[in-house]
Amino acid sequence: MSVLSVRDLEVTYRTQAGPIPAVRGVSLDIATGEVLGLAGESGCGKSSIVNAILRLVPPGTTVTGEVLLNGENVLTMKPGRLRAVRWTQASVVFQGAMHALNPVQRIGDQLAEAIVIHGQSRQREALVRAGELLDQVGLPPRRLRDYPHELSGGQKQRVMIAMALACSPSLIIADEPTTALDVMVQAQVLSLLNELQHELGLAMLFITHDLSVLVEISGRLAIMYAGKIVEQGPSVSVFEKPAHPYTEALAAAFPAIGDQRFRKAPSGLGGDPPQPDAVPTGCSFHPRCPYAFDACASTVPDLYASGEGRRSACLLVPKGELIAR
Amino acid sequence: MTTPSETDPVLEVEDLFVSFQGRVGLGAGLAGKKGTTAKAVDGVDLELRRGEVLALAGESGCGKTTLARTIMGLERPQQGEIRFEGEPLGKSSKILREYRRRVQIVFQDPTAALNPRQTIYESVAEGLRIHGITSQDGLPEEKLVARALARSGLRPPERFFLVYPHELSGGQRQRVVIAGALVLEPEIIVADEPVSSLDASVRGEILKLLLGLRDDFGIAMLVVTHDLGLAWTIADRVAVMYLGRIVEIGPTEEVLTKPLHPYTKALLEVVPEAGGLSRPVLSGEPPDPTRIPEGCRFHPRCPEVVSGAAASAGVEGRCRGEDLGLIELTPEHLAACHLAAARRRDVVPSTMT
Question: Structure pTM?
Fold first, then answer.
């Protein structure tokens, strides 16, 4: 059974300028022990998905569809049940860990707080558990007595990971967990997440705009553009042989060193990602697409099967033409 | 290989030192205690050649941004000299003023670099006004601003004159910042992480623009970045910095595909790649510029020292005790590594990986 199963999710924010659709019909599944990478640029709706999964959206936001967490629909849960499910079944490692910790509270107390609030144990046992958690993320338990300013950025992110593990959830959502970190530290944090995920058999939803990171850590990839998934499938095959022009452009933004095709040849797309309140008609990518033809401006593409375990929302797929690369 | 036509340096940095004094509390200060000194730039020699793109890479805290800011005259060096077209700076304010027109900087975050209450026209024209330029090449200010915007890819330029930064996308804002630099017709552009705050699909276009400026106008560029993939796509040469010092420099293809310094190798090791997680070879945090180790400053983290490769080559003692500068190991390719130098001396080409 899937740990997380999202069906036809739509998230529409209410603003003074009118409703803004941020997520426009997204379905995805994550099985136990599986890592799904979700890629996309700012404004594509990937963080809205995270917020909708844990119902952290601002009041007034319309969320439709289904979010099944271990078979239970999060969107229809009563508040009490929701509180119980958050952190014990699904937890989040947010971007910018440095700002998520309380600067005037010791690391140990903050970790213990998460455990106590969710009724897992009392203060004393919670501190012992906090020490174990630190050990698990590669920090010496004596760090429990440290304040956040005594830790480096990478160490703080480790604490945030420990916190996400505190109540033994079955799903971890990592929302750009390494974006603010330095290259070497990023590699350390990624390898830690990877180890923990294997060791604990966690399901993980890993979100970032950096496709090269996702290909390393996740088995399957979903690429988002303008509130929709435009391509999905096994990571390496999607990255190396994109079937959607947007994936192709995104992959080219992270060139492999030594690849002569990219030497002194930066490649990018003209234009900018669309604003959520002004999504183009037809295929929302068509104004920027180098392969666009007449039908693209008017026909909304479905996710067509485009290879082994793969789907792609590009009208070239049913035409039988694959993009050249 | 296509190297720029002239190889004479337009900018030279010699023996540069920049440090920052830490502060202490009042009590400690009265007791005569002093804060620790962070040596951000600790003896750098560098030359930027006419019309070349030089990437300056390294972890955060390695001093790359301080070096760039010092070159711009935004930090004062404790020691060392910066020469522009052979003229040392700091001798006269006239030279400095001229220098500040001909060397322009593009910052990481265009949203922070632009005044939100100024129109695009005002932002781009500001440099001209500061330098008292009312016309150039027979063109009035308005035409100069329009030309710079057009060269930055904002066409038609007149459409952007009365627009405010918040009405533009991130990529367009960075183009405005670049136009603000271009309008003064610089010889050099220093770009500090020029695309790292932009969306992935927009980055390529900005890099294309920067490369185009080099090709069309012969502008030399110093691109500060932590991203070696970016260096691969645009740079002629790469300099790798570690703890305030350049530890390896050479042609991009050499440095990135045949690195000589263990630190460069480690940086390349952690570049994410398809097909499995690369092991981070360096443990620990980015180094601390208030405590620079004795000997080779990289030796406490060096995998060659840990693995014993340095010991079996008989250089470990020197790694731990002898500070060293850059050594030219192959033509144009320099590295500050005792082991690489020893291997070179043995002239066993197969060990030069």
Answer: 0.87
